[in-house]
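Predict the structure of Uracil-xanthine permease.
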Amino acid sequence: MSEAVHPVDEILPAPKLAILGLQHVLVMYAGAVAVPLIIGRALKLPPQDVAFLISADLFACGLATLAQCLGFLGVGIRLPVMMGVTFASVGPMLSMAASPEIGLLGIYGSVIAAGIFGIIVAPFVSRLLPLFPPVVTGTIILIIGISLMRVGINWAGGGIPFLTQTIDGKVVQVANPNYGQLQGLGISLFVMLVVLGLIKWGKGFLANVAVLLGIIAGAVLATFLGIMHFEKVAAASWFDVILPFHFGMPTFHIVPIITMCIVMVVVMIESVGMFLALSDITGKPVDQKALTKGLRADGVGTLLGGVFNTFPYTSFSQNVGLVGVTGVRSRWVTVVGGLIMLGLGLLPKMAALVEAVPQVVLGGAGLVMFGMVAATGARILTGVDFKTNRFNLFIVAVSVGFGMIPLVSPNFFKNLPHELHPLLESGILLCAIVAVLLNVFFNGVKKTSTEEIVAAAKQAEAH
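Done. Here is the predicted structure for Uracil-xanthine permease.
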């Protein structure tokens, strides 16, 4: 008698896969294209080169996602993961972009080296699993959700609250006049109400695609109100080819390589948190071997990024929230999402159509999804022994405090060495480091498997 197929490995009907995969793409698209836009503009590339960077990024997103979800030769965790460019790399790459002797080709050289480094060190990072009992895992996942809420709130507000401008030769921040406008806030609220309404009253598949239908409804409303525009869609070409080393052969410089390898360590530690969150949400335990495969896929994705003219890749946490909201656990959904990303990279007109969706539309859905990530962390923490082990309270309290520092005070560490900023600008990483150290200090190191983490979450769910 054959064993039942786990929901993670279930292959859904093709129409459902297509719709659910598109939903994942819409959720991550804004974050996926943001980094090439930032770096392209920092390098003062012409518009056609910036457009190519975006297409290359989408193409490499698809490749990295397929490597992670399908898996091959010891690579890929085979969970519903969407891969995208990590924001942890933006600061270091902007510094490299400002240096004429490094430039874009130097950035690509450091990305390729970091990818190879990630593939090599993945087995060593995965051995850290005993350092992540439920009190640590739940705290990290809680901070992941809280960190993402800033993204969702800014989407709902219509962008970022402050813009950087150069006035009289000085770089200053000025208030964004388009931020927080009532019309945009109303659209975000409308999308959120549609999503929540479909979750409550929708049945079966309709509830599963609540986020997608909410975004579509918001896009229609935005079009009617004149906020969603299609000029870029009309101007975009139908087809383009993404070739390796489009801008030339990469160059390699020791300091940028070391910096990007540090970023890679940050990315991998954050990925451990993402994988453990997905393990809880999907109910599929991951052991050290599976973690190694998942972390190695981060390295492979980053290596592919450097080859195909783009940047370091990681698991996108906003899509973890979507899995929690929809309850659809099949990794084949994100496989289809990866194929859609490949297609968008090769079809600039379709990519432009997705890009045309205003951020305020995504904001209403983002608040629901990202809150679900934080709720997952809170659910794990309800299974932690706080009654007889008061030390666990201090682990959570202090770790959350450190994790909030980059969110509430971005300049908190400005006087520390610049080389440390990639480590200090990630609230998730700060929370992880502090939670692990405090847990070791108070509770020692115990053999903790992911099965125990999932069991703790299930126990909490029963309450």
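Confidence is low (pLDDT under 50) at residues 456-463.
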